[in-house]
Amino acid sequence: MSTAATAESGKDRLFLLKVLGPIHVWALGVGIVLVGEYMGWNFSVAKGGALGSLIACWVIGLLYTCVAMIDSEVTSTVAAAGGQYTQAKHIIGPLMAFNVGLYLVMAYTMLEAADALIVGDLLTQLAEESGVTDFNAQAFVVLTIAILAFMNYRGVLMTLSVNFLITAVAFIAIIVMFFGISPWNEGVTIFHGDLLTGLPYGWIGVVAALQFGMWYYLGIEGTCQAAEEVRSAGRSIPLGTMCGMITLLIAASLTWFMASGLLPWEYLGQAMVPLYDTARMTGSPMLQTLLFVGTLFAAVASANGCINDASRAWFSMGRDRYMPTWFGAVHPRYRTPFRSIVFLIPIAVSFAFTGLLDQVITFSILSGLLGYTFMSINVIKFRRKWPLGVIDRGYVHPFHPLPALMLLTLCTATYFATYLGYGPQLLSIMVFYIIASIWFALHRYKYVARGDQFTMTWPRPAGY
């Protein structure tokens, strides 16, 4: 069993249940991300054209492959809720752990808000096509998040089992559509020869496209949040994460191929639901219905996974007193971090109500990017402090330190890409995290019980 306990001293210790397997890890990782194949990635087309978006897709795919390998090693060894937050706590120190915890909560909460916006926009579009003029999208946004929060409140096994089913449907929809448009009929059913126009903004546009190229894969690292609730972290985390990454690479390539072959890049770069629009271009009612369902399921699966991951990170910070201990409680019946789940829901809804999809996506991307930068430093320190053979590892990623150095290089390039299009947002979120760090150092750190937060039975680090 894990060491998760209620935050209230003197009470019986309650544990998160170990009930998950590799398919649930896959469902969590792919479920969060697959919505990025249905929307969001296409904003990279506006930055670099269709070919620039494809280059960004593969370059960022390499970045996330490094993320998946690094996460699989460290998480299968530090098998506790909180994911990268818990890793930072054990390997680097409290201030880094606090910031990484905030990165996770912000990234997933913002992504959840973006998912809710997509659900509202999709239902609004359906209502308009059906002739309904007084449709209230915000009510459905709140209803969607409320239902998903209730599922998360009641138990992780049910939550991720549902996520597996709806994520599988959304992925199968992409495969069915690929074969449905007969991609071998170039110039008849698909028109890359007519629609691809090179790099309209040159290579600087390709660099700028890296920011939204992250949307193809953003959130796969969320598999780490299941580490405390899987039956075997050494097997389930690496298998679920790496299979999830393979799934996303396939889905991302097929998505780009279909959308860029049926939609002009000028429209594709600003479309809200590009895959659904692509299906509409085929003229097939069956494909349109399938992609409508796929888009809806992908957004719901992503929001569902985000609630799970954000609440685990917030719960872990409360359990270790980085946040008020009230958030570190486990439900006595459902064994879920129920207070953290409920607390974060109004925050997600408030951001969803802004209606600013690209801004919400940008804040989610930047928070995730800061977390990836930490990973490259974290794994290098992890290998130096506890070399191979010193502690048991569930998985050892190959070619170290090349993936870490490659990840750091690609993160730097993506920061520059973000600065080109969203410089003020980049600076504002950096200021936010600096102020939060000052608050933690001057106020919250005194409540942290340093000796209680190290739960791994590892030997003293090398050199200490």
Beta-strand fraction estimate: under 5%
Could you say which overall geometry the principal axes of the C-alpha atoms support? globular
CATH homologous superfamily classification: Amino acid/polyamine transporter I
Number of strands: 0
Number of self-contained structural domains: 1
| CATH fold type | Amino acid/polyamine transporter I
Can you name the CATH architecture? Up-down Bundle
List the secondary-structure elements in sequence, H or E: HHHHHHHHHHHHHHHH
Find the structural class using helix and strand composition: mainly alpha
How many whole angstroms does the radius of gyration measure? Answer: 21 Å
Helicity, as a percent range? 55-70%
- With helices defined by DSSP (H or I, 4 residues minimum), what is the helix count? 16
How would you sum up this structure, described in words?
This protein is mainly α and about 475 residues long. It has one domain (about 20-445): Up-down Bundle (Amino acid/polyamine transporter I). Helices cover about 70% and strands about 0% of the residues. It contains 16 helices and no strands. Helix 1 (about 20-35) crosses helix 13 (about 285-320). It is globular and about 65 Å long. The model is unreliable at about 1-10 (pLDDT under 50). Keywords: Membrane, Transmembrane, Transmembrane helix. InterPro entries: AA-permease/SLC12A_dom (IPR004841), APC_superfamily (IPR050367). It is found in: Membrane.
Summarize the structure.
One of its GO terms (cellular component) is membrane. With 464 residues, the protein is mainly α.
List the helices and strands and how they pair.
Elements: H1 22-33, H2 35-38, H3 43-77, H4 84-91, H5 94-129, H6 137-154, H7 156-180, H8 192-195, H9 202-213, H10 233-262, H11 265-268, H12 274-282, H13 285-319, H14 338-352, H15 357-385, H16 402-442
Helix pairs in contact: 1-7, 1-10, 1-13, 3-9, 3-10, 3-15, 3-16, 4-5, 4-15, 5-6, 5-13, 5-14, 5-15, 5-16, 6-13, 6-14, 7-10, 7-13, 9-16, 10-12, 12-13, 13-14, 15-16
